[in-house]
Please model this.
Amino acid sequence: MRDTICALATPPGQSALAVIRVSGPEALSIKSQIFIPKLGPQKHFVATRGDVLDLDDALCTSFPENKSFTGEPSFELSLHGSPVIIKRVLESLQAFGVRGAKPGEFSLRAFLSGKIDLCEAEAICDLIHARSEQAAQAALRNLKGGLSDYLEPTRIALIDALCEIEARLDFPDEDLGTLPCQALADKIQGCLDKLQKLLRSAQLGKRLIEGARVVLLGLPNAGKSTLLNALLGEEKALVHDTPGTTRDVIEANWVLNGMPLVLVDIAGIRDDVSLDPVERLGIEKAKRELDKADLILWLEEPGQEKLEMPRLVAPVIKVATKGDLYPDSQGLSAKTGQGLPKLKQQITQILLGDQFDFGEVMLTKIRQKEEVSKAHECLLEAKEALLRGEPDEVLAFELRSAGNALDRLLGKSLNEEVLDLIFSRFCIGK
Amino acid sequence: MQFDVLVIGGGHAGCEAALCTARLGLKTLLITGSLDRIAAMSCNPAIGGVGKGHLVKEIDALGGEMPKIADLTGIHFRTLNASRGPAVQATRCQSDMERYRRRMTEVVFKTPNLSLRQDDVVGLLSEAAQITGVVTKHSGEIRACSVIVTTGTFLGGQLHLGHEKMPGGRAGEAPSSGLSYSLSQLGLELGRLKTGTCPRLDARTIDYSELEEQQPDSPAPMFAFESIEPVLKQVSCHITYTNTNTHHVIQEAIQSGRAPLYNGQIAGAGPRYCPSIEDKVTRFAQKESHLIFLEPQGLDTYEVYPNGLSTSLPPAVQIDFLRSMKGLSRVEVTRWGYAVEYDFVQPTQLHPTLETKNISGLFCAGQINGTTGYEEAAIQGLMAGLNAAAKLKHQEPVILGRHQAYAGVLIDDLVTLGTEEPYRMFTSRAEHRLVLREDNVYARLAPIGAKTGLLPQKRFEAMQAFEELALKDSQSRRFQIEQKYAGYLSRIQKELRDQVELDACVIPEHVFETQTPGLSNEVFEKLRKHRPRTLGQAARISGITPAAQSLILVAIKRAERHA
Model:
């Protein structure tokens, strides 16, 4: 009956471990699709080691119906506590139709199934406190000041549009004139634009919370690992003159100008039939990393053969390496530090943009993004309905659904406000 | 004398309540100030409309009386919103007021188990928070297990006509005075509301040749399941408009202090959607003209109801502004418009069964709960009757969900949020409007009507058979409407699932007595004020945040543990 939901059950941010909880009728069938046990078949209640897609090596514990916290079929993944892994696992789950849980929704389901007892209830009470504490710190600026201030004009425009329609639906015998379709369409478009802008900020918001992925790409021995170490200021990756030293993907957390990044060092990409199978696998993995990158640093050693340009989605910064060996190249030198500040500046500029203002409103939580996307979808439908000349109650349905999504985000209520506006705007009454 | 159920008031709520309990086999007494005024239409001579027509159909599916009488006495039937989608289309009829009253009186008199008494109730009797009966002016004490109060505008009623003020529940009828005191004594908080009515005109002095005619629909849309076509002759309504001269007369009267609404004489809050003409002219000064419907009050009368001209201005002003309008230059007034102020029981003090939270067995229904409209009153009377009967028979209460019926929306809004002005049904109050339609009313409610026993088995079977046929026939209107909305209906169903579970989650009393750890003072005050019955209700009160809901949930669980 209900849908399947997921959420991070441990505090967000970096930690040793992170637990993602999934609950709902589809939980177990989804589990078998994303988790492959390594050491024999999985039994309920037993933490089992295995692979979560190709994202992490993790422990998974599954719970059958009536024997889980929520009372529903569910499972928990104990992942490595990297914000990146967490984000990607959550995204994968959503691709399977799992919805991000609303605050307290697991507890609600547990209660509705009669699964919580007093001790657990007290614990949840604490948990809720902890959450609101975090909300106070992390989301309060957004929710109280920023986000609601930003969304209020959109809400008002929505209520305004609804008022025009509802007044005519509920008072057909009043002389209210015909529906101002063009003005309505403009109003809806205005709302769409604002929501679209907010949705775009979600990318940035997530980057700020979870870290942007910066992938180092180049031919073998182009100096990728050297650059990684130089940027980090520590010997993270093994460096050697032998081409193809780096075979696995190496990830390192790095903070640049207050922005969390994940630097990703991958195997050098070359197309050579004589490669050994391990390096070949490394290259395959490297190519997958390119698809997930937010930014690619393209490293080339001057005078060496050029890497054939693969198809890339993410923005690219070209870096000439080994500047100490080729003084004329004006290239970067990890050894001397020449060119490093410039590269850092370029990275910041591309990831944050020119006019980026940390004070600007942005969506940082999946739940927020979901509600705003829902509102956006409904408004698109509303616009379509208006253009197609659908009946007014259908148009109202879409506008209301959009309004409800925003209200869920901001904790307000639509109905009274619409009626208030109708009576203040139109002279109605017989 | 001992009755099972005692109904105070013979208006639209009282009639439905008394008929309901009597038909369910309970010994019922209906007490009213005047047996000649049973089911009187005090205001406009019409039943139905957008949202209201939906309510009347719901009364039909539950086995009530209003739709049948409306069909028998209707003289002008129309479908409103005919150009819009089926969810917002609604039936409305002009009624022959006098015939409506007589028909309903006849049904009430002929119903077995139902006794009538003309008297005034001056007090309520109770023992240990259980109602035991009433005290009357002339008949002494009358004992009953349940009492349903449906006093309309009569509770502490005060009429205003220009400078004149007089006690009254309706023009020419005395108010009920002792009852307000008695309700307060039982711990119920009373508020004050106001409503107005229009002057009535003499049709012989209206020049119809100058006016726009509005004909009834043909074929006539009707309310009751069995109705095929109107019984009475069908007549037209007419339309006229106010103009700048009309407005000038009214503004001058207000400025010279002759309007009770503006000189401080009337304090109660009036309905925003049914403003007096004084209000319209003041608040929408830029609007040069207002639409006025001239509605015949019946076939055997010359009286006409000018819908849109509710007023409490002095008679001299009323006749002046009337005669400034097209078609009305020679008009004569038969009765003056007036305003009435009355006491109401803030409905947050009621359970969703319409039983008071304080006193077991005491129910309130209709205008006393802060609503306006015959239809809103009738459905509440019916629901109070069903629940009074269920209680006496130790059966499950009958509570309709917001997704099931406009009746559910109405009662949930009242008992959850209360009201500050006379509450009228609008379709925009129903978040699941596309589900709550006139065309699917029998599918929604007939099974419930049959289960309560009020909807006779035969009628229920006929409704079911009709439903089955219609849903199989791709040519039927019912089928096509379901198809048309299919995409939206499935989206709504998805939303509903969560809601139904929340609505099933009952909040224990102690949550309102002691502050649950973690709840802010503001949220706690809101909870104490509204006393929501379920978590779903709590969620509909603005300011009760999701976090607060989770905390309440924990409190509920704790209470269950201790129980």
Q: What stands out?
A: Chain A touches chain B through 51 residues (CB under 8 Å). Chain A has three domains: 5-116, 131-207+362-425, 209-352. Residues 118-170 of chain A form the longest helix (53 residues).
